[in-house]
Amino acid sequence: MTTLQTRPAPTATIRPRAVARTGLYLLLAVNAAVVARFFVQAGFASNALIVLGRLAGLYGALLMAFQLLLVARLPWLDRRIGMDRLTSWHRWTGFALLWTLLTHAVFITFGYAQASSMDPVSQLVNLAETVEGVLRAVVALALIVVVGAVSARWARRRLAYETWHFIHLYTYAAVVLAFTHQVAAGTTFTSSPAARTYWYTLWGLALGSVALGRLVLPLWRNLRHRLRVSAVVPESDDVVSVYVTGRDLDRLPARAGQFFLWRFLTRDRWWQANPFSLSAAPDGRTLRLTAKASGDGSAALRHLKPGTRVFAEGPYGAFTTLHRTRPESVLIAGGVGVTPIRALMEELQGHAVVIYRVTTDRDAVLYDELCDLALTKGAELHLVTGPVLPDKLAPRELARLVPDIGERDVFLCGPPGMMTAVLRSLADLGVPRRQIHFERFSLAG
């Protein structure tokens, strides 16, 4: 039997994720220094609480702009860091923003109350009634508190995604209100033409990034490619593949391992977007997604008709060969998490070991395709079956299946519990973190 041996792809000497992450940190640090400089140039108030409150407000405005950048879905950042990590950073930046703005409001209110001998509540009411822009700031803070409350883990678990997302959209109203407050009442904003130019530029770039990444780019791509369903193919009793075609798909910058937010424009589902990975490497003619019927959105895929219009946002994700650090790799899939793994098999070069973890043989979706790809590319394929416990992917088992796992890149996708267990096993085996690649796709939508 002859197998096709492919030449190992060159690996990155400088990690793209490290470059992007360092760039974001540097961008934030430089802007923090600029804000501090403008703050000092504007002069200090006589009351220390007011001084600290103003500084907190400025850094709150900076954090708000940074938050917008994190969720703008700019392709350059998304391909290098991944939507899951950017979303996680956005979440923690949001909590930092909440506490920073609360500090701003409390310190300013108590500072002015100290100077006027009024109680804090009366002072806040007085500021809202007499100072332009303060009432807008109070409303903005209230909106951010509400968004922060529903984003807390205990509340997020109890809300449907659509409900949480709708409430989260009020953040944009808070941004506009906060900016108009800064224009009207910010002493640093009005202290010099340079300061005004800086803040207008900062807010313009932040809001422009959101408009570009989340509105202009998706609309332009969908108008250009005009996606439609070409075929719906059942893979098993509860798994279906959807084939999508369109114009000029060879110019769509999609890679194996990435996903889209798919909207199928039927009467009852046009408003609902679901994140599904590509289950085959893009070939310039067709896109394929494969999904398990785990909810209303994915279950409805089986009933799609050829010709149905599709609106797809993306491609998104950093789960690609861009981040390879070694010429050989291990691909570990669990359940329907095999879809991006199967796509990566087509694109990966060099020797690969594929481990597919399922409960029973019947759950091994796309297994025949994996076998064909393994034969063509000279890869090893291991189907691991059995109940969740005992753990079939414990450190000893992984070391048995892949003795040189520490010298390979590891691409991992599967249910959250399995991924956590495998990541723990990889850490126990001493696999360097830079060689482990995964995305938690549930964060995408």
Automatic annotation (TrEMBL):
Where does the FAD-binding FR-type domain lie? 222-322
Q: How does it sit in the membrane?
A: Multi-pass membrane protein
Cofactor dependence? FAD
Q: Which UniProt keywords apply?
A: 2Fe-2S, FAD, Flavoprotein, Iron, Iron-sulfur, Membrane, Metal-binding, Oxidoreductase, Transmembrane, Transmembrane helix
The cellular location(s) given in this protein's UniProt record come to: Membrane
- The primary site where this protein sits is membrane
Does the keyword field hold Metal-binding? yes
Can you tell me where the transmembrane regions are?
24-44, 50-71, 92-113, 133-155, 167-185, 197-217
CDD domains, alphabetized: FNR_like_3
Name the PROSITE patterns on file. FAD_FR (PS51384)
Write down the PANTHER family for this protein, in alphabetical order: 1,2-PHENYLACETYL-COA EPOXIDASE, SUBUNIT E, NADH OXIDOREDUCTASE HCR
Q: What is this protein called?
A: Oxidoreductase
Q: Which organism is it from?
A: Streptomyces incarnatus
